[in-house]
Amino acid sequence: MLSASLGLALSIVLVVMSGASGLELGQHSAELSNDLAGATSSYDIKMTLADSSSALGSIEIQACSNSSLIVDPCQAPAGLSFNGASLSTQSGATGFTISPLSTANNLIISRTAAPPAQASLEYAFDNITNPSSEGSYFIRLLTYSSTDATGTPTNYGGLAFAIVKPVNVEAQVPPYITFCVGAAISGYNCSGASGDYIDFGELTPGQTATGQEQFLVATNAKNGYNISVSGHTMTSGNNIITPLNNGGQSVAGTSQFGLNLVANSSPAIGQDPSGPGVGAVTSNYDQPNIFRFDSGELLATSSAPSDYRKYTVSYIVNRPPGQAPGIYATTMTFIALGNF
Amino acid sequence: MKFKSKKLSRLANGLIASAFALGVAVPALLTSGTAAAAELSSSSVMMSNSTPSATGVTYQFSFTTAGAAQSMVIDFCTQDAIIGDSCTAPSGFNIYTGTSAINVTTGGAWTVDTTSSEKTTANHLALTASSSVSPGSQVFTISNVDNPSTTSQGFYARITTYTGTAYNGYTSPTGVGTYVDYGGVAMSTAAEVLVTARVMPTLQFCVSAAAPTAACGGTTTPDIDIGHGTIKAIDDSAVDTASVYSQLSTNAQHGAVIQAKFFPTGSCYGLADGNGDCINPVGSGTSATPVAMTAGAAAFGLMVENGTAISGGTGSTAATNVYNDGTHNTCNGTGGAYFNFRASSGTNMASTYGDEVASSTGAVSDVNNTYCFGATANATTPSGVYTADLSLIATGTF
User: Fold this and answer.
1) Predicted complex ipTM
2) Cβ–Cβ contact A222 with B under 8 A
């Protein structure tokens, strides 16, 4: 009578395969200075020996694309190369040099065999060429008593590292130039500009007529800005007021039309440039009490980007006693160019 | 019941191969005068370990008797389960090491007989009860048994029960006397089954402009453009932000660290236009904690959010307090985020191995981190296209 049930009791041993003799390393890691594909990188290898009493004569660092296990064949990661590696740092067990037995994906360091000074070891290598493709790769770490990475490993371990894409951050700063003109500008904002007309009133031989206006400029042009003036002297039909082409002081009773961009005392008019920006009045127009006008000349310049800079243009008009009557007028055009 | 020996042999041999942990009841032929004897039913032996030469093994017997009995003999033999047949002890098998060491225990009404003429020996188990045991289920164990030393060794237990405590004429396996019930169980040793599972170290790390889905799916090239407007640009009116993402999966038991490595352009440790112009790092690149960025105060910075597992993932990563102050960690340029970009002085993003931005304390799966970059320009920031090149590096400690 075979009524008894059939059962099985398997002795199951679940093993994380090491594929190597010796003891499995304690904490171990490989830190890369650059994890980009094909980059030249430093690798900082840290490991804690489980067997730190055995002589240590060599350490093998093997890079594989397929497996961290010694029982598996190692497929060299494409592009990875230890060939130019140099050992830049060593601690815990010192005296190592890179063995000539090393290959492109198998880096061996060796020394005279002796027990390590401590279980915690660190070795940094420079000039390693990373794998040429993004992905995960493996490093096998093995220590030997022999000096040529032969025999039974005393410690072993595996780890993984990743090659990734770079992060590229881009921000565009567009070019700009802000420029405004007004009879007056409050603050350093073009919204505060007002007026575009100057009335010198009735010109008389014994008194200098004055007027002023302002312009405000700001730009991120790398090489700054140039501001020039374009126009003609005051005219009334064929009659003109003589422009101060070479500059000069204001002399009442003569025929003069000129301007500058600084504070003056004779006559008391104008202001020096102000504001958080940079830039300066050109030498033809920066002398107090000296006025000049030559169409097309530069009035102010900056060689660098500038935040808001406010300039005050002061005009003087003088007329001789025999000046023909009429309505004298002119139009001034200020041109700001950013030097990007 | 009558059984032919050939049938018994075939059946037993067939079962030996597979029944190595649970003994299987096999028919046992009668060879002596036992006209009233009955065969045990539902008989089995359960072994705690079938490995050859294993020691300390427990055998649990279970069967049902048809008649009352007060003594019992179980002989362990290599040949067969036939009652009265010659018996060779399995090599290495031992249920009893001698007078000084009793390594057999029992359960129920039965106790080991170590004193009578039929006392227990290496392959012979003699049991008695203090009074007659009624018919029915009998379950008892013997422990500290040494298994046979031969792999795939088939062996048999021959069971006979007797009235009284004197085994009623039993003298040897071939002289079993007058028994009440009889039965046989087949057993076998077997090679230990070794199941191997490889668990390799893993570290999957990806960086993407889009939040990765499971297993680094859905990634896009991590090139981001910070700014606002139709043609994205930064200016002095806002702090603009843009994000990239990483996903980390690793079985590193001691955790993983994510570091940001910055590759400065010349002497610029922020956003550079390649023409010598620079949007400097916020906090002068030396701050130990995140700081606020103000629109119009040209600066470039990074805020790292804590990493969380996406659906199906496990674990988390914590951003370092250098890049996440625990409060201002919402990625926007209106005060939600404080930024940092430690790119000079001491350990920093431009140093050899970069600056730690986040870490886990153990293994994680599909944990996404968000890296929020912020930038603003001032009125004099030269126009141009400014860039910063970084890499995010994950290092597992296995």
Assistant:
1) 0.83
2) yes
